[in-house]
């Protein structure tokens, strides 16, 4: 198992930037594909970005491609999401997720370990 704790959320204006971080505990982080998802009230959890165990492969939702960047540091057991050019529709609770011994995937059901989430609010 791996425990995940997100940080870095907050309030930002349209066009601004935020950097989310996810700290992982446990020995399985480097063997885990990692993902970021987001959710707004009344909607299903939505895929944002994923990164492979080595960081060599990444995948993004079309809605964030070119604006968001996922990265990881296996030495520090962290995965980050750099969010630029934020839009109102990026407002959501953002979750970090781990898929131990698995490859990148956009399906939330493939991730067994989740953080508690961090709120991102984009205002005009």
Helix-strand blueprint:
Layout lengths: L2 E5 L2 E4 L4 E8 L6 E8 L6 E6 L6 E3 L7 E6 L4 E6 L8 E9 L12 E2 L3 E6 L1
Parallel strand pairs: 2-11
Antiparallel strand pairs: 1-3, 3-8, 4-5, 4-9, 5-6, 7-8, 9-10, 9-11
Helix fraction, binned, reads under 10%
Q: Please report which band the strand proportion falls in: under 5%, 5-15%, 15-25%, 25-35%, 35-45% or over 45%.
A: over 45%
Radius of gyration: 13 Å
How far apart are the first and last residues' alpha carbons, in Å? 40 Å
Name the structural class: mainly beta
Q: Overall mean pLDDT score? A: 97
* Major sheet characteristics: 7 strands, mixed
Question: How many runs of DSSP E, i.e. beta strands?
Answer: 11
* SSE order, one letter for each helix or strand: EEEEEEEEEEE
Write a concise synopsis of the structure shown.
The chain has no helices and eleven strands.
Can you give a write-up of this model?
This protein is mainly β. The protein is built from no helices and 11 strands. It has strands spanning 3-7, 10-13, 18-25, 32-39, 46-51, 58-60, 68-73, 78-83, 92-100, 113-114, 118-123. Strands 2, 4, 5, 6, 9, 10 and 11 form a 7-stranded mixed sheet that branches. It has a 4-stranded antiparallel sheet with strand order 1-3-8-7, with no helix packed on it. A hairpin with a 6-residue loop joins strand 5 (46-51) and strand 6 (58-60). The N and C termini lie far apart (40 Å). The model has no long low-confidence stretch (mean pLDDT 97).
